[in-house]
Structures are given as structure tokens and as C-alpha cells.
Amino acid sequence: MPHFTVVPVKDQAQSNYDSLEGINWVDYRDTGQDCPDHQDSVSSDGHGNHKEDSPFLNNADAASKKNDFYDRNLALFEEELDIRPKVSSLLSRLVSYTNITQGAKEHEEAESAEASRRKTPKSPNMGTLMGVYLPCLQNIFGVILFLRLTWIVGMAGIMQSLLIVLMCCSCTMLTAISMSAIATNGVVPAGGAYFMISRSLGPEFGGAVGLCFYLGTTFASAMYILGAIEIFLVNMIPKHCSAAIFHATDTLGSDSAMLNNMRVYGSICLSLMAVVVFVGVKYVNKLASLFLACVIISIVSIYAGAFKSMTHPPEFPICMLGNRTLVRDRFDVCAKTVIKGNITVPSQLWERFCLPGNMSGTQCDDYFIQNNVTEIQGIPGLGSGIIRENMWGDYQQKGEILEKAGLQSVDAHGAMENFGMYVSADIATSFTLLVGIFFPSATGIMAGSNRSGDLRDAQKSIPVGTILAITTTSLVCILILSVVLFGSCIEGVVLRDKFGDAVRKNLVVGTLSWPSPWVIVIGSFFSTVGAGLQSLTGAPRLLQAIAKDNIIPFLRVFGHGKTNGEPTWALLLTGLIAELGILIASLDMVAPILSMFFLMCYLFVNLACAVQTLLRTPNWRPRFKYYHWALSFLGMSMCLALMFISSWYYAIVAMVIAGMIYKYIEYQGAEKEWGDGIRGLSLSAARYALLRLEVGPPHTKNWRPQLLVLLKLDEDLHVKYPRLLTFASQLKAGKGLTIVGSVVQGNFLESYGEMQAAEQTIKNMMEIERVKGFCQIVVASKVREGIVHLIQSCGLGGMKHNTVMMGWPYGWRQSEDPRAWKTFINTVRCTTAGHLALMVPKNVSFYPSNHERFTDGNIDVWWIVHDGGMLMLLPFLLKLHKVWRKCKMRIFTVAQMDDNSIQMKKDLATFLYQLRIEAEVEVVEMHDSDISAYTYERTLMMEQRSQMLRQMRLSGAERQREAQLVKDRHSLVRMGSLYSDEEEEVVEAPPEKVQMTWTREKCEAERRNRNNAPENFRELMSLKPDQSNVRRMHTAVKLNEVIVNRSHDARLVLLNMPGPPRNTDGDENYMEFLEVLTEGLERVLLVRGGGREVITIYS
């Protein structure tokens, strides 16, 4: 047994796993350096046994592979290590894998040289709490919770608000389950929902939903900014130092002035935030913890105030006139009169409803005079029993005054100018509207998946953190806040007061907090500002990721940014789109818009999980096991239902936008292969359809030509006759099956690269000619055998070809090689044996291209024998294409002497009428006539040539003279052929030279044979033609005369193709008959049926 020396080698490419495997590594490479201890590359092991340092690859081959690291234990695999690496090398690369930052190149693409020079990115170290749970909490506890949840509870009541929350949270919980399954099915680089959907459903769905998610995130930033501005203008700025730029000229113009102020301040705030994001994103990320702390402190203060209200409810008195709620900041005392120095004087409230200085009441508002002014507690407290009054909803119309049902009121007509003194509804409310407004509060579930690139273990953190956050916010916080706290502590008219007019412009949720309403005001302001900054930071990166995927060409510019990768152009577009949301200026109108986009995204997350689960693809192995396709379908249905419940017209607009993006990517976008589920779904559907088609042959009504087009490639692998593909596309018009086949002559092991090049050439030509089909290349030692293989094996199951289209072997007469026409006839026989139809376009180079248009002309059908109806069907299919659409169809049939031509014409017209085919009918009478001298001579020349080539072994010079004789008699345009100049049969190797001894007898016999050759030639020239060949030639000549006479100016002539003779000795004569039959016609299509009916008169 040989011994080897372990040589220590410094190798940077050696992985860390090498030292862990317990392998003693041997360097078999030629390093080109001399080792002092091994000068002769032969050493001793100390026992007198010599050993070599490089026993296997110490040669030139080893020098060429000196960068590879071979082990003697892997010698069997050493020749393939460049394409099949060692397991240790693979594992080392997987260990060094790091999630790519959001918006960077795809993880499956090769890193560029510039990227390889960058420093190693910092490994992600965020856990479940900081990476997923708390960011989800921050997004869910957002602007809707602080600004609109109390209003939703007041309008919808506790029961219906519970239903709204339950619907939205159930939808997000089901989506989170589906998202957890997708997120744990392999490594998810940064990209969040877009990455998961695009890699699960394909680039079309991924791009459409990714842009919807981007638009939703962008409009979310506008919503958060509008919420912050509303808090700033309404709740933070005191009335005496109002920051409003626009002021209402009357009480009815206050809404429009407020909207204009929101637009101005919102635009300013958006610009400042965009500058902050552009200058320093790292500061935004650092401030995220501060903003999250504000949210948590605000939630805790609400709980503290609610429990404190059981014993010491806060003092927020509500002034009521009758049962109507008054705007509290328009007067000082809730009374009609006040006592000043023992004198009763009118109060500010009196002066608002009456003329100044008038105490009589004759010039006061009627409703004010007839109803009393009372004061009720705005926050009765947790133990007051107010929950019974707030149990059911009280939806209102726009401009309707907020009224308390339990107070006495005298119904009287009030003056319109005093309408501004009452708290009224600014918009009409309904259950569906409230669903659309509330849903953005539940859209924070993607915060964890969007940070997947920063998570230490994304497959563990995303499902645990997301589901835990939804459970916490849904059950503990939102449900308790809406049902128990808000409905049990706050008066109904205060709940329905959106802007806090009844409580002196205080934030309604702030009235319940402890120790001060300012905790909620400041906390909610910073929370909304932080959420807006986060949205403005994430949306451009999402757009950059979509742009860098290169699936939407016009978005490529947004993939570029600053040198550090920051998406500058994407940030600019995001700011412009967010400005559109700012210009809407209404939080209640922006919220349903982003609800649509988020619901669209969640819908496709559920669809992706359901499709992957039902397809059961081998790669679908999620670590998260608590999912089911039924839950995904339920979540998808809920998303769709919520879209139309909240706003059906917004839902339609969002679906139209997504559909347009989908179709754009499908037709114009770059093709991507991501192993998506839609491709798997297509494969499953194709398999199901093929199994259904396997039941039996198609009915005659469903029959259409499923083409196998046989092409020839020249020496440079270029398609020799592309017009064959053009004609196939015109005949098929994109319908049915088209297989384009060709044969590469050679050995498969040696010609595989040539086969791939040929396949790519044909695919390119198919794309140019707009042929929708498949390409099949066969490598065979003989082209004839390859064609037989194609005819037998193309197609799958019920999707097999039933028609073969091949070119005519041009120049077969001039060719000395008989293989050209022999292959053609062999193919005709194979199609007949396989019961396949056959089409042979002759003079195909003169056929029209797809850009030509025939404005007039005829398509002539010469129906000589019935062959299944192919001759009737093909012109009808051709006329469906724009090239042939304006051509008229004429059908000619041949009548013999004993036929009734008049009756034949009537029957044929009736037959075409029942076939629903419009065509001009004509019956041609062919009278019996004697065989002409031309026919006799033509037959004689044909047989002479055939016999000459078959019986005589001519020398090269004699063969050339004989071929020249035929060329002089029958001069035709020499064109290349589908089967000409092909090596159909392997040329036999020349026999080895045998040393022979010539005797006198052998020499004299050879001399006699040479002298008899001219006599044999003279006997051949005196041969008489066979009578059967004369009859066939007579038929061909007579038919050709009639066809040329009637159809010489036709755009296309369709003609029955006679079958080859049963006796193979007459094959060459068969080719001559076809030539005579089609002489003088510019475009001819020879057609043979497949032995079955392909057209029917029945419906």
C-alpha cells in the first residue's frame, strides 16, 4: 500500500470546513515552487519507502487546474469539480451568505466586481422583539387609533365597531398565517411582501402587487402626515394664537378653510420629511425607538385614565342646548345668563343666538328660546353604565347636528346663521365607510417581513413576532379599547365628535388619558410623524427593488440613486405621489385608498400560499406548519369582500391598475424565471388537460391542423426557407399546436452544442415570424431517420401533431444525388402510414410575408378526389388571416364524360352552403382524348433517365454529360431544397486497396465490357415507355393544362397530392409526375389528407 506525505499549503480558497472534516489534505497541484525538504519531489517516510508528493496530477493538466483543490478521496470526481463543487465548498458559501439590503441586486444574480470589493456587510442581529413585534405594534397603533377609533365607536356603536375590528383583524391574522408560511419557506432577503409574492406568483403578479404595495405605503405616508397636521392645527395650537393661514368668512366655509390649511401645512411637512430622509436615513432609524416609546406611553396613559375614571372621572363638561351639542370654545359659560354684581346679564351664549343688548327674547333664535341649556359630563367613567347607550350605532348624514337621545328638546326651527354653534357631522357615515377608514389601523403586519434583511433568524422571528403582535393588538388593546374603555367611559355625543369641538378642541381619546390630555396629544403627534418618516423611508426602497428587478422597463431609472445606494429618484417620485394624497387633505378620504392597495397585497399573499400548498411543489417546505390552503382561501375571500365593502369604486380602480400593470409586464416586461407558483399551476393545468385529451381523438368539429413544420438549416445554422414559418403562422393565426422540427446530422454526444445553437436559431426565427409554438431538434446519423423520429415522437399525449408541412425538394432533377427526392418520398410514405395529413408548399419563396396584403385575387381549390375535406378547411383558415382576408375562394372539381356536370355543380353548391363556406363553384369537364406525342415523349425521357441512372454505373465525366443533357431538356431554376444536398445515407467508405494479379483472361474480359458500354447506351435509348407511366403522365399533363388555364392568375392553388407508388422502383417517376402536374403555377399547395374527415355539415 503506498504512503503519501501530508504537505502543508497556504490556500486562501480552503474553506473553514476543511479542518472540521478530519481530512488530511494533500496538495496535488503544481505550485511551481521548490520545497527545500523535497527537492526531487520524492521523499521518505522514515522507513525507507519513497513516496511522491503529487502522484495523480503532477503534469500539465494539473498546472492548468492549479486553482482547484483536489483530495485523493475525491479522485473519482476530480474531472467534474469545476461544475460540481465539494460539499464543504458549498456549505462555506452558504454560511457566508448574508441577506441583501432592500433594493439591492437579486440574491440569485452574480455579484459584480464593484460589489465584491465592498466591505463585508454587518451581520443581522435583530431578534423577534425589536425586529418584528415592536415595529408591528408601532404601525398598528397609529393615527387611526388616536384620531378615529373613538369616532368609529360612537358612530357604529360598540357591537358594530366590534364587528369591524373583528373583520379587519381576522383578515390580517389569516394573511399573517399565509405570510409566515411563505416567509419560512427558505431564506427571504430584504424586500418583504414584494419579494415573497413575486417569487411565489411570478414577475407579473409580483410587479403588479409590488406597485400596489408601493402606492399603499406612499399614501400611508400622506395619511400619517395629514393626521399629524390635524393634531397640530386642531389640538396643539391654542385658539388665541391660531396658525391657520386660511380663515372661514362664514360658518359654512370653515370646512374648506380647514382643508386648505391642511394642504399647505401638509405640503410643508412632506417637504421637510423628504429632506430628512434624503439627508440621513440612519437618523430616522435611530428615532424609531423614540417614536415607539411615544406610542407605548400613550397606550398606557389611556389605560391608566380609564381605570382612574371609575372613582375620579375627569372633568370635561359638555354644554347642551336642548338635546343638541354646542361647540364649547365659542363661549365661556354654559348658561343663557350670568350674574354680575347681583345683576342678571346676557351671557356670551345668549349673544351668539340673540341680537346684542336684547333681553326680551323676541329677536332670538326660536330653538334657543324654547330649549334649556344644560351641562352633562363628557367622561362619566367606567362605572357609569354609559355602555348601554353606546351599544348601538347612530349613523349620520353630512351636516346633521349631534344630539343626545335622553335629553328633553322642543323641536323648533333655528336660524341658519347659528348653525356653526352646534357640533355637526362633517361627512355622511355608514358601516362600509367606517370599515375602509379603520382598516389601515390593521395594516402593520408587514413591518416584520419588510425588515427580514436585518433579522437574526427571519424564519423564526417573522411568524412568532407578527402573529403575537396581531393577537396583542386585536384582543388585548383594540377590542378592549373600543368595547370596554371608549364605550364604557365616554359620552356618546363626545365619541361622535370627530374633532373634539364639544370638549374645547381636545383630542377625544386624550380626555380619557391620565395624567393629562397632552400626553396623548404629544405622543400621537410624534407617533404619526415617525410613522410618516418610516413610510417615506420604506416606499422608495420598495420601488428601487422593483426597478432593479427589471420587470417594468419604464421604472429602470428609479433603480439608480446616490453612491451609497440611497434611492434618490425613487424618493422624488414617492414625494410627488404622496403630495397627491396631501392635496386630498382629508384623512377620511385617503384611508380607503390605501386600504385598497394593502388589501390587494394581502389578497395575493393568501393566493400565493394557497397556490403553493395545493400544487405541493417539492420546494414548498415551510418551517411554519400551522397553515392550510382553506385558511388562505378564506383570507383571500375576506380581503376581496373588504375591498368591495369599504369602497366598491376604489376597489375597481385598484384592480384595474393592478390588471394594467400585469398585462404591461406580460407583454413588455423582461422575462424572469423565479420558479413561481403560477408556472407550477400552468404545469398542473397542462397535465390535467393532456390527461383529458388522452380519452380519445377529437371530434370532427374540433379538428384543426396541428402542425409539425419540417425546416432545413444551412451550414451556418440559418433557416433556409423562413417563408415556411410565415405560411404556418398565417394558417394557424396563433391557434392550436405548432411544432417546428429540424434534424442535425451527426452524433448526439458530439453535436449537442450544435443542436442547442440550431434550436436557438429556430426560436429566434419563430419569434420574428410570430409563430407561437414549440421547437424540437433531433440529432441523427441520417437525416431520413431523424425525420422519421420527429414524425413519430413529437408532441405529448393528446397534444400531438396531425399534419406535417415540409418544403419541396427543388433541383432534384439537376442533383446527381438521389437522396434528396428519396427522403422526400420516404417522408410522404411515413405521413401516410401514420395517418397524418401532409402539406407541401411549392415555390414557397414566392409566398407572401405577414406584412403584405392581398386586396383582391382568388384562392383556387382543385378538388379532384375527396381526401377528408382538408381542401375545404385550409382556405377558410387562411382567410382568417389579414394577408388572405380579401381573397375570394373558388372551388373547381373535375367531371368525366359519364358524369352529370350540371347536377354536380348544384350538389357541390348545396354542400358548401351546408358547410357555411362561401365560395364560387365551377365544374370542369375533361373529355377523353388520345395520348399526345408530347406526353409520350415526356414519359420516354423520364424513363430513359431513370433507367440510365439505375442500371449503369457511369464514370464521373459520363454522369456529368448525362446530367447536362437533362438540364438542357428541362431547364428549371435551381433552388436549394429541404432535403437536397443532405447526407441522408452514410457514404460507404472506399474499399481498401487489394493487391490483385491480372491474368490475360481478366484483362480481355475487362476490355470487352468497356467496348460494350456504348452498345448498352444505344439499347437504352431505344426503350419503349411503360403504358402505366404513359397513362399517369397523360393525366398529369391534362390536369396541368386545365389548372393553368383556369388558375394561372390565382393567388394560391390548392391541389390534391397523389400518393407515391407502392413499388419503390417508380419513385423517381412519381417526382416527375408531380413536377408536370404543377408546372406553370406560381404558388401551389399540395395537400394529402390523413384518412379521416376534418369538416362536417352538422353543428
From TrEMBL:
Q: How does it sit in the membrane?
A: Multi-pass membrane protein
Pfam families with a match to the protein in the record: AA_permease, SLC12
**Domain SLC12A transporter C-terminal positions:** 722-839, 854-1099
Q: In what residue span(s) does the Amino acid permease/ SLC12A domain sit?
A: 132-306, 400-708
Q: Where in the cell is it found?
A: Cell membrane
Protein keywords: Cell membrane, Chloride, Glycoprotein, Ion transport, Membrane, Phosphoprotein, Potassium, Potassium transport, Symport, Transmembrane, Transmembrane helix, Transport
GO BP terms: cell volume homeostasis; chemical synaptic transmission; chloride ion homeostasis; potassium ion homeostasis; potassium ion import across plasma membrane
Q: Which parts of the sequence are annotated with region: Disordered?
A: 31-60
Similarity comment: family membership: Belongs to the SLC12A transporter family. K/Cl co-transporter subfamily.
Full protein name? Solute carrier family 12 member 4
Q: Upper lineage ranks?
A: Eukaryota, Metazoa, Chordata, Craniata, Vertebrata
